[in-house]
Amino acid sequence: MVGFISRPKTEDVGHTFTNISETGYYTINHIHPEFIKNAHYTSGKFRKDISEFNRCDLTEEYLDDFKAPFVKERKFKMGLCFREKIDIALNDTFLVIGEIVELVLPKMHSLDEDIDLQETNAVGISGLNTYYSLTKLEQHPFVRLPEVPEFK
Fold first, then answer.
1. What does DSSP assign to residue 56?
2. CA dihedral angle for residue 87, residue 89, residue 94, residue 98, rounded to 10 degrees
């Protein structure tokens, strides 16, 4: 399962969640350095008759009869089936939860190994508009209580 928080509800909230709720499907595509600016501007509240793909110079790609478009220029893509919307009254946003049903990985990876986001050249984001390169710092084993070290 993967979740994301929507922007606060307003009359001009855009049509992303409308598309998700109508079709039941959506995609999440990792951002790479060469497409940061294009990807960032897809978050604009475009009218329903304006394609973010066309306006931001990205290419729609449909894979394996999946009902929502992926971004062709991306190497790491997730196709999700909408599962639940949870309203958050504190700031009038909502959590959208989807189940991954389609996964496209860079050629160097498989589901049997950890995905090295640094190696895939993926980009991280903080807040709504600040982008970072990702550097792997450490890797640790799955935590089993008898194996927790003493930290004194």
1. T
2. -40
Q: In degrees rounded to 5, what are phi and psi of residue 72?
A: -55, -35
Say what the pTM is.
0.84
Give me the number of domains the chain comprises.
Answer: 1
Per-residue pLDDT tens digits for 108-121: 666 667 777 888 88
Question: What is d(CA 25, CA 39) in angstroms, rounded to the nearest whole number?
Answer: 19
Specify the residue for token string 């919307």: 85
Using CA atoms of 29, 71, 118, 124 in order, give the dihedral in degrees to the nearest 10.
-50
Domain containing 142: what range?
2-147
Distance CA 82, CA 25 (A): 6
